[in-house]
Amino acid sequence: MSYEDNYDQTARWDAESVREAEQRTQHRSTRSSAERQKLKKKGQRRRFTLWLAFVLITSAILAGVGWLLANDMCSFNKAPVETTIEITRDDNLNTIATKLHDEGLIKYKWFFKAFGRLRHAESRIGIGTYAVDSDMDYDALINRMSNKNASLTANTVKISIPEGYNVRQIIALMDKYGVNTAEKLNDAAMNSDFNYSFIDNNKKGDLTRLEGYLFPDTYEFFVDEDPTHALSRLLDNFNTKMSDELMQKVEASGYSLNQILTIASLIEKETDGTDRENIASVIYNRLNNIGETYHKLQIDASLIYGLGDNYTGTLTSSDLNYNTPYNLSMYEGLPPTPIANPGLASIQAALEPAQTNYYFYALGKDGVHHFFKTYAEHSSFVSSSQYAG
Fold first, then answer.
1. Buried (b) or exposed (e) across 228-237, using 16+ Cβ within 10 A?
2. Strand partners for 146
């Protein structure tokens, strides 16, 4: 073999070796690429499975939480609860949610607060005492506690003072609705100078000097109003209501204005709403005639007033023997002051009583007073099944 032939053979062998090497390299590269693709797809499937599991688990959790929240918001499947909620000037959405939660009306305070903010609850919920129950959803609770006359965010409050409230009760009501504090209102009632002829400024320090003159009506006060000015609103109203015609009747009655208001306050505390003139006649008959009652009015409402904080809700034998000028079974005549603030109807009844021979009355099970001329008639009724007890 010549040198040239040997060279050509060697060159061919080298070329074949290079091609084989290239083919092996290409094969390895192709296999490696396929393996990478396979691994990549496997990783993608794993990530998708994890993502799907996360989504499903999260959705299940959210669905469960959403169902719990919806149950609470819509008042589904709640144990029966009936209660009252008192809202004061010091309350806000947070404390209201706590009160509702503590009473078993809601489960999730934070969710109620979030709902309340969306529904502008703080501008709707007002001061007061509200009957609520577990059948009420969030919106129903907010609606039940709404009070446009005394909302938590208002600068003024509208208060209806009931007929028959005494000074202490009126001051407590004004304190509750944020007119001012009971302490400042009491101080003003006892010690302020009031420029009215019917108020005795020489009796400073005595709360009863305003009793009978704080006219029961609906008033709009500023929040944190000056206490003397706030009380003067009621006195102004009394002064207006006591027209010249009424004052002429007072003068013709033979009684002072304070005595007429005292009689009117007794009527106000005793009446069932339909019998003011008859009750007035009993009072005048006992005052003016010895009869069987010896000028003693024997009205328990006056004794209760005299007991003050010592009254526990039921008159005991000890209470009946309590020595106070307001004990009208012990003392003759009228109590020393009115025992409440009467409305116009009771004042008119005190000035124009019915003309009767009644000296006694008792409440029947039918919800009305029954009137009697003699003690025997009265005792017979009290011993009967008709007596309310």
1. bebbbbbbeb
2. 125
How far apart, in whole angstroms, are the C-alpha atoms of residue 51 and residue 133? 44
**d(Cα 323, Cα 373) in Å, to the nearest integer?**
29
pLDDT of 293 > 70? The answer is yes
If residue 158 lies in a helix (H) or strand (E), which one and from where to where?
strand 156-160
Cα–Cα distance between 123 and 271 in angstroms, integer?
38
Q: What is the CA radius of gyration of the chain?
A: 42
Q: Which two tokens stand for residue 83?
A: 């209660």
List the structure tokens of 53: 């599991």
Q: Would strands 156-160 and 128-133 be described as parallel, antiparallel, or unpaired?
A: unpaired
How many CA atoms within 13 Å lie on the side-chain side of 38?
Answer: 6
Backbone φ and ψ for 238, nearest 5 degrees, come out as -60, -45
Please name the residues in contact with 161: beta carbons below 8 A apart, sequence gap of 6 or more.
Answer: 170, 173, 214, 216, 217, 218, 219, 234, 341
Q: Choose among 167, 172, 171: nearest CA to 129.
A: 172
pLDDT at 152: 79
- Band the pLDDT of 153: cuts 50, 70, 90: confident
